[in-house]
Amino acid sequence: MPLLRARRSVERIRSLANGARIEAPRLTIDQGVAKDLFLSQLFCRLTDVEAHELRAKNQGYYTICSAGHEGNVALGALTRATDPALLHYRSGAFFLARARAASNGAEERAGVLELLLSLAASADDPISGGRHKVFGSVPWGIPPQTSTISSHLPKAVGMALAIDRMKKLGVDGGTSAGAMPTARDSIVLCSFGDASLNHSTAQGAINAASWAAYQKVPVPVIFVCEDNGIGVSVRTPNGWVEARMKAMPALTYVFADGRDLSDAYTKTKQAVDFCREKRKPVFLHLATERVWGHAGSDADGEYRSKDDIARAEDNDPVLVAAQSLLDAGVLTGAELVEEVDRALEMVKRLSAEAVKRPKLTTRAAVMESIAPSHQSAVLAEAKRAGYAPMPADADKPKTLAHSIKAGLGDLMRKYGEMIMFGEDVAEKGGVYGVTVGLWKQFGPGRVFNTLLDEQTILGVAIGAGQVGLLPVPEIQFLAYLHNAEDQLRGEAATLSFFSRAQLKNPMVVRIAGLGYQKGFGGHFHNDDSLAVLRDIPGVLLAVPSRGDDAVKMMRTLVAAAKVDGRVAVIVEPIALYHTKDLHAAGDNGWMFPLPPQGEAIDVGEVGVYNGEARDLVVFTYGNGVPMSLRVAKKLAAENVQATIIDLRWLAPLPAEAIETYAREAASILVVDECRKSGNVGEAIAALVAENPALRAKPFARVASADSFIPLADAANLVLVSEDEILHAALAVAGVKTHASAVVTTVAHPS
User: Fold this and answer.
1) Alpha-carbon dihedral sign for residues 24, 27, 31, 35
2) In what helix (H) or strand (E) does residue 459 lie, and over which residues does it extend?
3) φ and ψ at 363, to 5 degrees?
4) Interatomic CA distance for residues 737 and 320, integer angstroms
5) What are the mean pLDDT values of the chain's consecutive 10-residue runs (750 residues total)?
6) Distance (Å, rounded) from C-alpha 156 to C-alpha 136?
7) Three-state DSSP class for 423?
8) How far are the Cα atoms of 443, 465, 469 from residue 164, in angstroms, in the given order?
9) Chain center to CA of 711
């Protein structure tokens, strides 16, 4: 049935040349422009029909089509390749019009072929290499989107904010790896459906643009709501989109009828010109139709009446445009048939070519674009010195918080395109004072506050990085990340994967987190799980335990973002921010001087304490490092010599170093301060179990309970304690003890 409806839509266009007629609006735009727009619409429709033909032959794998949304063709024709366009999955006509406009008509064939290669999941697809069906092109300024349920709107806002900010900072676009090409008057477009408008992510992004514009901050973005009145099977109330968006302050609302070629073009031009000249956000409400079902597998007759389906087919934008062109004398009936036949022949020929093109055939080929790394170049960049003097007090021992602040200042001097932002990071300097003074030092163009919305914070980072800045956003508490984790998982980390590593959104996300905070409880301010970050392919995750390490690791993370376009996260242990002592009050044993420029810690390089010990090796990180060092002192009194390994890097886990030190030790202990389930301890246990040389060794792990963290001293009941570490260490090392501890101990982890 879907295939028959698809074929019928083409036959109805043909029938207009043979005397059939429908009501159509009068053409009021330039006839040459109108014909070009129609041809892009026609090629889009025939490609959509071919998508159903390929699916029927099991040669194509995607049938969410653009049928009824072809009014977005006007946006493709009226914008430039330097206007980043984040497209809805029904924006095929836009894609083909942008290809035509970017090449003065020369890319008609190329645009169609790219769509067909994507439908056929071919490794030759220029944008995704067969990893997904997407609208995307680097030369045409279209970064790929794999989900358009509004998750791409926050980064569209970030791009728009960054374009004008770069001008003020004197930063040219493209200074970082894989940046989108932009011009100084570029605007950003993002298209989405009316159902997606109700998603919290869409509302947050549009609110953020409105919030910024209300304060006279330039935000040249056009939100394009392609409104067909229905989301899969859920109706959008009549008038809802208009009423909702007209109520937004500092947001210009423009309505265009995408079923009327002239109105779509005229109103779209108004929106584009206003956004480009005034640098203000615009909401373009584009009326469309859903001519077919949601996808090829969707039996829309179950929730749409026959009259509703017939009405949508009568309002088919391609059909209506063809009638308008015939009425205006732009095409004769014979010329219309000739154009349909020519386009159909090209689509069929290119489709036959696309299905024969190579597919992805190996795991390595699929994964090669996740996060390509040039580690030696990254380390060289991290160690590059001589760009600015170090602070006069660099040799004075500092806490973790003071070291991070100094390290960030040093990096801001090194990279003029680096920006820092988040809740309270500017004048206040963050909840814990880590960024205090940097706002005054570098100015509000580079250090600034955002509104209280983590999706916006990460979206701004993604967008800013994608057009050439080097963003270092702050998430105020680790648990707050869960409000926005899909911005990392579904947007930031996937861009390289779905663009064959052609496009990147470099960033280093700073997150204050982990347990052991005095006077804090609750699941929002005191969180002890990193599982959500370790689960994202390609993300670098660093957890420093001391100030000098933090500075050296940040140098590497920022260099990885700069050189490789990496998405990186550094989780800063809140409880260690202002810790001075290690063993006794006043010993200042956990304060360290700033490392000189030229020193950096490579990804996978662990910290080693008492490396010659052979009785026991303890693998830990964050708060677990000073805790384990204190325990090691007590172990020595029991004649157990322990090597303490600060893992530092939790994704990817430094497996080679773990195996090396585990082989050299008689027994193995993991001290995982996070919850027992889903965190580092499990990963190391699996690594040991899978290694024949290690699995016979005595092994134990201690971890916090699978619990939220309560307030005050009750927190100590669920967090790992030094007593637990001590008793587990003695037990796994074979020293008899009568003390009890809640530990997991196994001789054979397999």
Assistant:
1) negative
2) helix 454-466
3) -60, -40
4) 85
5) 86 92 96 96 96 93 93 96 95 94 76 95 96 95 87 97 93 72 95 94 96 97 96 93 95 97 98 98 97 89 91 94 97 96 96 97 97 96 96 95 98 97 95 95 96 96 96 94 93 96 96 86 78 95 98 98 97 97 97 98 98 96 98 96 98 97 97 95 96 96 93 90 97 74 39
6) 15
7) coil
8) 16, 14, 11
9) 34
Q: Are residues 423 and 457 in contact, defined by beta-carbon separation less than 8 angstroms?
A: yes
Region of 409 (left: φ > 0; alpha: ψ -120 to 50; beta: rest) is alpha
Tokens of 570: 């550094």
Whether residue 628 contacts residue 672, with contact meaning beta carbons closer than 8 Å, is answered with: no
Residue environment code for 446-485, b if the CB has 16+ CB neighbours within 10 A, otherwise e: bbbebeebbbbbbbbbbbbbbbbbbbbbbbbbbbbbebbb
Alpha-carbon dihedral 6, 8, 12, 17, rounded to 10 degrees: 100
For residue 562, give the nearest of 481, 491, 472 by alpha carbon. 472
Instruction: Compute how many other C-beta atoms are within 10 angstroms of the C-beta atom of residue 610.
Output: 16
| Eight-state DSSP code of residue 492 | I
Measure the CA–CA gap between 179 and 505, rounded to whole angstroms: 7
Label the pairing between strands 282-287 and 744-746: unpaired
Rg (CA), the chain: 29
**What's the pLDDT tens digit per position in 584-603?**
999 999 999 999 999 999 99
**Locate tokens 């469309």: which residue?**
288
- Other Cβ atoms within 10 Å of 586 Cβ, number: 7
Q: Is the pTM of this model over 0.85?
A: yes
Rounded Cα gap, residues 348 and 552, in angstroms:
57
Residue type present at position 519: G
Q: In terms of Cα–Cα distance, which of 479, 434, 431 is closest to 454?
A: 479
